[in-house]
Amino acid sequence: MSDRVERDEPGRIGRWARRDPVSAVAAVLIVIHLVWRADIASWGFLAQDDFFLTTYAAESKLTLDYLLGSINTNHLAPSPALITWLITRAAGVAYWPYLLLLIAGQAVLSVAFYRLLRLLVRPGWGLLLPLGVFLFTPLTLEVTSWWGTGMFWLPMQLAVVLAIGAQVKYVRTRQVRHLVTLTLSVVFGLLFVEKALLIVPLVFLLTAALFVTGGPVRSLVRTVRRYWPSWVALTAVSVAYLPLYFARTGPAVSGVPTSPGEVMAFVERIVGSTLIPGLFGGPWGWVDAGDGAPITGAAEIPRWLASAAFVALVVVTARLRPEAIRAWTLLAAYTSLGVGLLAATRLGFAYSSAAGFVPRYVSDIVVVAALCIGVAMFGLVDSGDTPSWHRVIPPALREPGAIALAQVVALLALVGIGIGAASSAAAWAEDWAVKQGRDYVRTAQSDLVAAPPGTVFFDRPVPEGVLGALFAPYNMQSRFFSPMEPGPVFVTEAENPSMFDHAGHIRQLRVDGPVTAPGPEPGCGHMLHGGQTVRLPLSDSRFDWPWVVRIGYLSSGESTAVFRLGQATHRFDVGRGLHQIYFELVGAGDSVELTINDPTVTVCVDQITVGNPVPQQ
What we know:
- By secondary structure, the protein is an alpha+beta fold.
- The protein has 2 domains: 12-42 and 95-433, no CATH class; 526-615, Jelly Rolls (Sandwich), CATH 2.60.120.260.
- 53% of the residues lie in helices and 16% in strands.
- The strands form 4 sheets. Strands 7, 8, 9, 10, 11, 12, 13, 14 and 15 form a 9-stranded antiparallel sheet that branches.
- The longest helix has 34 residues, at 400-433.
């Protein structure tokens, strides 16, 4: 009987779940969302920026110049540079190590965010709502799937959560160790991306909004006076970091907004079409952006419905409790900072019209938004502020039947948001699964393994969809394939060179371009006697450009020869018998000259072609 009683008793996890059921459900939600994100991310592969980063890492030594170099439009990111260097050395061009890191980082971030909710928001089942918003918003799928963006924004999200948690503990206890944690949290974020400097004003605004009473001016003054050690520490970090950033990145690469209308359109897009719909499970539609992650494409009616729901949430919670007003003020202030910084650095370029639809730009705002939703709806821990239901809900709506109906409506709304988020995520995953870079790399690697010994290649750019010309010269195949094993061998002269086609298959190279006219000698074409220079007109002129030249010839012996196109020359070896030679040359002209140096050698030339290399089909 005693054995049966012992078997019926819950284990350690069961006792914990009974003691803290909210945390138990939160743990289940975190695990589910990690599996969900890992599954979606695994459909894809490295994309665009990732190939540049791996190539740059493969070519670089692990030095301070490499770690503190400017990457991806003036980002100072020593930690991502180090991680990419190590993984490239260990695994070459592989996606799975980055995927594991991103999912592990999301796991740490999710637990830290839930702990922050428990620290800041009134306890109860309501904690699961802001947690669900944070865990399942489709807006952050990009940062847990694409290394080229996740390496920046996922650590920044974690730094935001850790810094806020440290400041909350410092405000409540005044213990110096929390001040140290606050400082280290910001430093941690700055090791990954310079935008982590925004954590400094965020912490200040959060303290003024949620932990100090009084009007706007009085709250700011009290915040400075009461918690000045925090601001001294954070100012010291900022003052130390900024000179390093500007010294290592040089002049900022940023545009200038062309008009106030461009700025207003950007604000409307990033807030009304990306951020707000994303908080309600949107955007419900995406726009393909090539091999990278898609951008938001919310339809007009769902977008306006989401905005109306957000306004209703703000109005109702603001009437229920004064704390909500301060929470929404905090969200508005930080969103203004983040969006203002983006407007100052991302507008004025060719693709500025799409900047407002890029989800990663609001990944840190999503953290603050989810936190503010929790505070606005459920209040702060140990707060004496109680909801003023009588000010918002008429007496008729307080009847049991009306309350039951409201609960059903709320449940249906949550289900609808969940279905919308699942639909948005499924559409995002379908787009992410289409990867030209993955197919190109895998095809090339497979063909290289099967290629005969001695296969050599002429260097060309990879397809634009794999790595764009914006990344030149890292888009050249010789650099693109440098981290891979086995890798192709690139030359500038060969008798039978190969090249990769658009899909990554190895093809024999041919030259597409103007040719010389047929020669007068039957069975020979143009006969060149050693020591003579022969001028051969081309069927069309060539402008100054890097061309590939093909010469087919039959030689009576071995010699050297000199080829000339305009002012450009190229010397090559001539072999006995029937051969062909391909080589690269930068030149211009409407005719070519060829000289055989050995006077005892006679060479027959059938045709000379000057043009672009193309794959033989």
